[in-house]
Amino acid sequence: MKKPKVAFYWCASCGGCEEAVVDLGEEILNVVDLVDIVFWPVALDFKVDDLVNLEEGEITTAFINGAIRTSEQHEIVKLLRRKSKFVIAYGSCSCFGGIPGLANLFSANEIVRRVYLETPSTINPENVIPGRGDKFDGSVVSLPKFYDKVKPLDQAIEVDYYLPGCPPPVKLTLEAIKTLLSDTLPERGSVLAPDVALCNECPRKETKPDKIELRAINRPHQVYIDAEKCLLAQGLLCLGIGTRAGCGAACINGNMPCTGCMGPPGNVKDQGAKLISALASIVSSNDEEEIKRILEQIPDPTGTFYKYFLPYSILQGKIKREIENESLENYD
Amino acid sequence: MNPLKITIDPITRLEGHGKIDIFLDESGNVKKTYFQVPELRGFEKFVEGRPAEEMPQITSRICGVCPTAHHLASTKALDDLYKVEPTLTARKIRELVNSTFFVEDHALHFFFLGGPDFIVGVDAPKGLRNIIGVLNKVGIEVGSEVIKIRKLLRELIALAGGKTIHPVFGLPGGVSKQITREMQEKFINGAENAVKFALFVLNCLRK
Amino acid sequence: MYDFEPKIVAFFCNWCTYTAADLAGLSRLQYSPCVRVIRLMCSGRIDPQFILEAFSKGADGVLIGGCHPGDCHYQEGNYKALRRYILLKKILKDFGIEEERLRLEWISASEGDKVQKVVNEMVEIIKKLGPVKPEKIIQLEEQTDKMEI
Hints:
B: mainly alpha; two-stranded antiparallel sheet
């Protein structure tokens, strides 16, 4: 009986999702017994050509992490889609865009200029910018296109299941693997994580008041953080109220507020907007000036509420207006 | 397919994306090599406008294999930004987590990433140049020790830092979480086991 | 000045602003047809997602009309709307949408003339700003390569 084939691939990723798989620990030996891993650049030497040589649908499940930022990543995920029965968007970057999604607040030009020309520790006297390619010996050696915007996986290919998290918690990954190898598959398109807000799972939930009254918003280094009490009640921006559970409240156990990496619970289309809404409901003031003063204590609402979710949000990032006309051609 | 061109796509067993094109002359010598990095995320730009204290958690996403290193480097930058000296306790906690990370990260590299090239050999078949090939060579006993010690140490990082991958505990001038007597004992146990493991591996390699 | 007819979505609370808009109609106070009015029971019902959705679907401006502070039919709803509005304006700026495109006004049931004034003012301001024209979702294949020299 041939073992089902599994593949892992990373797009604009940090490799944390790969580590999350390795963190299955002893379990990984059991997994390796059950499946045949045919592609996993972080750990195995299989090449893209090996993927090309597989039959359509030969891979049972492909776990793809990382957001789509370059044409190469786009090509490979399309290839994996063709060769796989199921594709799982693994990790917040492929589910929603993740932290690299914050790049959608800037134009591609601004990013390239900053990275290669403007950073203080870069020595680049000839202002070299990675070009599209070189011709040598009749071959073209080229870099992929750097897209205008970061895209989550399902804006590039059809995705069967989503497993969010930065990275996905080990427990959820194990459950996902067991479920996918079983006979009862969940509904296509579902998120393989509990559909409740993090507060449900938080060890401090007993200390959360029924009616939270936010009179001041504190940044984590401005206050002594009580290790037992609800963080939101302490005036810290804990986004657990608008974030999916499943991580066991890991950050709270590190005595820091939740930053929203699991994405929103099921009924929410735009996590940032919902978090604004929820926060506005608990700010305890009816005086316009005082409200402004309290909300001013959030230095960066966009980055804070959309930290992992920007490309998946309703507006997806900074809107390009026709007035913009930046070009690198004039740079000398 | 051009017989005078070798393409390695992608490069493997490291964190990151890379592609190598090697052009050979008729005698099989290398004429020209291109090392291409086909990825860019732009951290240098998109951190602009984010609150300073979020840098340890944002920059850790530069790499998920060494997030602790980025986290602690950012935290030290915050100390400098706010011109605060971390308390002695905070320094020790940070160093404790860093040392724990050191060991498990080196074990990862030695067995999973770079190790296969040395232990299994670069001429081995593609399917064996990996952790499985290494375990076949050094034996399942060593293999299970590697997995056990990494799990133990990585759980310690999460104990003090919140999460193993992308810890959260760095703050300007300190850390967010106290170390209790219980945690201290777990760390001591972890350290003892780490040393034992290192000696064990050294021994195995001597044979 | 852009030569276009702006599309403005107006979320009006049933008890105050919507009634005022009716009154404006009854009193034959002309206000710009560029506004599409959506009636809600309370300005506090306005989910920020509605506002973002409006902009993403082509609205050039969004107007929120609610009861004056203290007059909310449901006590606190309009204060919640105010707090959401304050945060949203900041975020919209980061998304490239100018502050003037989102506006909150307290308009009581008898202020039909205020509806007329506010709507017409807003249309003029948006005409000067131009259309938002959210970039059409560019198919990945069409994306230009910014690294070309």
